[in-house]
């Protein structure tokens, strides 16, 4: 059965959309404007469909970032995906952002040269020294639970004594300076673009693994804490730490 899946990725400060047919990339569009999801996402989708001369009615399913990641980005992506699924009466697929990062990393030339048994550790920046992370085997099977972890210079020393770990993603970029171990490999520039959702989305579609369009919510991992103004009513600055 032919499958045409629209993939929507909005977990970080950029957004991207991709169209796949039977598990193969047809076209991807990316907008790197910082946190501009609410203005650009539907424009990107419309442009994508026009460029391949398809309508929403031609889609078999929509895949969206499950998270973790940006609360606002995930919420916007989910809202748009749900709207399309309702309108076209098609199924909704949710894909882990960390799994998407793994497929992005495996596209790096490092893996063409290295065939050894490695642990993959995708990381998403969660501000300050905290990251969202999870360990995966080389064939993208999770071997740990997703966690929000405050990272220090000794956080991964025990596992680095046993395994070579490949770190990547926006969270890994900021901790690379903490580790000088031959067992710690850092890949720069790995981002969860929508094209790297395709493999997971196609597997879900082929196995009829769908979400309830009415009740699906992204996996935020942490509760959302709104940012408050640093000014009090008299106009003076308060010394506050914001998340």
Task: Characterise the protein shown here.
This protein is α/β, with parallel strands linked by helices. The protein has 2 domains: 4-97 and 192-206, ATPase, nucleotide binding domain (Nucleotidyltransferase, domain 5, 2-Layer Sandwich), CATH 3.30.420; 99-187, Nucleotidyltransferase, domain 5. The protein is built from 7 helices and 10 strands. The protein has helices at residues 37-51, 71-88, 97-105, 110-113, 157-160, 170-175, 198-206, and strands at residues 4-9, 15-21, 24-31, 61-67, 92-96, 119-125, 130-133, 147-150, 165-168, 184-187. The strands form 2 sheets. The chain has a 5-stranded mixed sheet, sandwiched between helices. Strand 9 (165-168), helix 6 and strand 10 (184-187) form a beta-alpha-beta unit. Helix 1 crosses helix 2. The longest helix has 18 residues, at 71-88. It is globular and about 50 Å long. Residues 224-243 have low confidence and may be disordered.
How far apart, in Å, are the first and last alpha carbons?
Answer: 46 Å
Second CATH tier, the architecture of the largest domain: 2-Layer Sandwich
The largest sheet, given as strand count, sense and whether it forms a barrel, is: 5 strands, mixed
The count of strands amounts to 10
Looking at CATH, the homologous superfamily of the largest domain is: ATPase, nucleotide binding domain
Spell out the helices and strands N to C.
EEEHEHEHHEEEHEHEH
Number of helices: 7
Broad structural category: alpha/beta
Overall shape: globular
Low-confidence stretches at least 5 residues in length (pLDDT < 50)?
224-243
Which CATH class of the largest domain applies here?
Alpha Beta
| Strand order across the largest sheet | 3-2-1-4-5
Strand content: 15-25%
Mean pLDDT over all positions: 90
* Rg, Å, rounded: 19 Å
Predict the CATH topology of the largest domain. Answer: Nucleotidyltransferase, domain 5
The overall number of domains is: 2
Helix content: 25-40%
